[in-house]
Structures
1.
Amino acid sequence: MPEAAIPDMNLVVGSHDIVFITLDTLRHDVAQALFEAGELPVLGRYLPATGWERRHSPATFTYAAHQAFFAGFLPTPALPGRHPRLFASAFAGSETTSPRTFAFDEASIPAAMAVRGYRTICIGGVGFFNKQTALGRVLPALFQESHWRPAMGVAGRHSTEQQVALATRLLAENEQRTFLFINVAALHTPNRAYLPGCRVDNIDSHAAALRYVDGALAPLFAACAARAPTFAIVCSDHGSAYGEDGYRGHRVAHDSVWNVPYAHFFIDSSHQHSQGAAP
């Protein structure tokens, strides 16, 4: 992504709420196909005319990808070259920290936001956010507040609606600047419940889950627009193979896993949006 397309995050932090949504396990090819078919009426409003940006995930599964994300290593544009980052935990020799990058001394974005007066909230989805085990508490512990219940997990047929309902309620509690993170679990296996008659997860049920998620996100974006100027990041943490080259699932180095959809955009009180532009 050209540096001109990167908003000046030093202006965004402090003036905007920040909403970071990971659509867990979403493949780029499926996301882009639905955009091109006009089947993402909610997210599509905020995407550029070309649709989702194809990026490479820093990892092949949820835990590793989110550890990288929260340190400022969001998915990298799938093009050669060094690409300036939105956020960067300061370290010597960084070649992707630009004047527009929000650089911080803390170890994670949630910690940096908290120091700067943000209320930091995690709404979990897949098992790495369920707080039921020591491992499931590591990522939520980065936030001041963390929330999860079974209805928000991979077995919850209405999980995204549950997450969005909680998010909108929390956003309405006060006017403090907020860093809100949501890990959307609906696309992760098992997703066959979103496609009537489907018995085995496949590309079609993956797509059906995304259609569900798209509609379920509408109240959240409306709440953000009504509350405060908001900068949103929406991306996948990794994809998932459905039989390509004999692979199924993720935590494997396959294009279906590495290639993820990415977008960032602004939401304001007039429901206008501007992908990539400076505020």
Note: The chain has a mean pLDDT of 92.
2.
Amino acid sequence: MTGIKTTGEKKMMFFSGRAHPELAEEIAQELGVGVVPTKAFDFANGEIYVRYQESARGADCFLIQSHTSPINQWIMEQLIMIDALKRASARSITVIVPFYGYARQDKKHRGREPISARLIADLMKTAGADRILAVDLHTDQIQGFFDGPVDHLFALPLLADYVGGKVDRDKLTVVSPDAGRVRVADRWCDRLGAPLAIVHKRRDKDVANQVTVHEVVGDVKGRICVLVDDMIDTGGTICAAAEALFAHGAADVIVTATHGVLSGPAADRLKNSKVSEFVFTNTLPTPGELDLDKIKVLSIAPTIASAVREVFEDGSVTSLFDEQ
């Protein structure tokens, strides 16, 4: 007989960057594990140092980092943490990205533009990631940017069940804020048994975050409208869409989005909006200035923890969303 036979069992280790530690702790509690102690700090010139306090040799490692503000710092930290795991002889490295940075730059609209979403995937692969686990990517095609398995999780069940449980479904209309979200809105309609409406808009290609709403396609008069989107950044698009719905006779508007980026003027826009409730998940930390009664944050931790468990046990992540 040649070689050596081992009898060791698989080992899971859970790591977190500094961007959103509260979400990491929630997921760790759901999994029944602890977050691996990590020494991380910035040098005076901004360089990032990372060292894990426990051996990762031979372990299936899951590393979470949500790309919140300052986004470039946290992406760089995640890349450094992946490299540290690779050099620590981890058996596998699964990168959990609740919010995938640069996802809106997923194609070229005009010449001489980058496809930055592809660049982020390439950086993760080069750093040593074997697998990516993300929540509600801006477009499905981003899954093809990574040369390896990508587990795409959805917040739709969490958000839709919350909204469906608090309103009269007979009066509910699901609204897509633009043509690009129609497919997702259609899934909401199937889950809630509600009709669909669409807000037609046009974006100024030369001015970032500049949107003009034109018209509403569908019957919203006297209806409770739920606007569904993947993210809200400055709030301009969604608040303008809500205004258009009210102008067409909507009785009430609820806004839901997986990712509450909420940068720049978002705080003022949400506060001053006639929208009765904004519903997000905690893929990103909610800015302190947005501690409003009309904002509801639901935890995505159980969904991510279930997916991590399926990956570790060689199960099926898809089965978590089969009912959709």
Note: The chain has eight helices and 14 strands.
3.
Amino acid sequence: MGVPDRMDEELRALGLVEAQRKATALFAEVGARRLVVPGAGEREVSDRIRDLANEMFGTTKHWHKRIVRSGPHTLFPYQENPPDRVIGEDDIAFADFGPIFEEYEADFGRTFVFGDDPVKHRLREDLATVFAAGRSAFQADPGITGERLYAEVERLAAEAGWTLGGWHAGHLVGEFPHETVDGAKTESYIVPDNGHPLRRTDRAGWRCHWILEIHLVDERNGFGGFYEQLLDLA
């Protein structure tokens, strides 16, 4: 195929921004309805959020597995599949969902804290702070690579007193399924061995768009938190 024209690129970007707007609205309603609460199992909460996405937007497809994790399960990276767990009264939990809206992928993650543990509350607040600082680093460096952005996110996490919980800090996003758009794994992720500029076109000629994924872990206390959304589009 030929290089996409500017109007196609703009429509594609608008589709991704609209998908994130719907994901943001979905999670706002998750909070308003208190779907993530102590006493509920992780799978039960996941099903509640799935059903709410269908109720609000008619969404029935998710491009990656639906994740709700709590307590020590919040330490696990994406690829793990821990057994179901009931959320506790003094707990931390996160949800990571990839709903598809009009064939565009959203990827959205937020963390919920129950009880008064100041360390859990500080971690939740630091998630958004590290995300914003990582986005600022991306915006300030037109030629930033996946390697450099990963190193900066890792530095920001350590500066706040946490470690990163996953092997990457984000990935490509686009039309479903984005994984077929670009071939090499390292080129599609924000990882230490991705020396390619993040601002580039993929093999089909489309401008690359990215998710920034922040998974902070408190190794000493045995829990973590998660925050993700679009990196390069508002």
Note: DSSP finds four helices and nine strands in the chain.
